[in-house]
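Hi Y.,

Following your request, here is the sequence exactly as I used it, all 375 residues.
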Amino acid sequence: MEIAVLGIDLGKNSCSTVGLDDAGAVVLRRRMRREGVIKLAGKLRPCVVAMEACCGAHHLGRVLRAQGHEVRLMSPEYVRPYVKSQKNDDRDAEAIAEAATRPTMRFVALKSEEQLDMQTLHRARDRLVGERTALINQLRAVLLERGITVAQGRRKLERHLAGLNGPEGLSQRMRVLIEDMRLQWSELDRRIAELDKELAEWVRNEEAARRLMTISGIGVLNATALIAAIGQGESFARGRDLAAWLGLVPRQVTTGGKPRLVGISKRGNKYLRKLLIHGARAALPTLLESPTPLAAQAIRASLLASATTAAFLCILVSRPRSSVTIQRDVPFPISPRAATGFRGRRRDPSDRRAVERSADTLLVHRVAGLVQRRE
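Below is the corresponding structure, written out as tokens. Let me know if you'd prefer a different format.
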């Protein structure tokens, strides 16, 4: 029995495996635990092992690659069209094996253990930040029910609670409860600060992360999250591919030969997309005050009046390529594709929606270029 492609449908406890020969015919169907999959693959000659990029796939992929197999991970949405007839585990494994043989299939790069560790740190930190935000919102609601309003901002609320010892119309029970919530808040701040310190220590020893931090708006969080998600960026041929993966390019609903672009697709890594936008927003004040040619052009062209804040931020931080220029009659750099509106009509270059769709990708172009740079 000669197996050329081994498709594995991963499950929490049991996995379904299907083996295809060189002609694409099914020669093996088995269901076993994950340990059994490793033993089965160890008895086979080096072949292509295909799996969906799901929980545990990267760990199992590294084990199988160490045995000499070629591991191919795919997004589940790309496997779904190859499922025949009724859906079950065996059909899924067969579809995975068949999809892996397609020459146009897009594969997911295997993540190293270090990348997965860094990704887990970011997820733990994001969970703690969410818990802290929920606690702050509850504190504001408790105070508002008692007629106490606090200005917007986490630090302003913290200062107000520190001076909440006078006659504020709060019962003793509410004072005890608010103090307990303040202690929880302080504990969350401490745990988040520890994770931030660990991320900063990791950046000092990572050359790619230090290169990324040379971009305005890219700090420790953005750099570590990018490295954890894309590694050295070898899966992307150009910056626009990374922008499409992040969901920063327009979504197409073209039909009948008439191009129609709507808002950004918002596919891919939502957490990474959020960090990039926040980083660009944080860099805006410094860039506007800096004596750089880009900032001078931005001020002269009055971009703040003609673009949304997010689009303007991405333009300033990206340091666009020489092919992207600010022309006298166009107040914002827009590609011909982004300038096309609904039903094939030509959109005004100063239109805010067209500006946002074209500008959100420029920061990602800069990021991808630095990640792929070789010394």
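The radius of gyration is 26 Å.

Thanks again,
Q.
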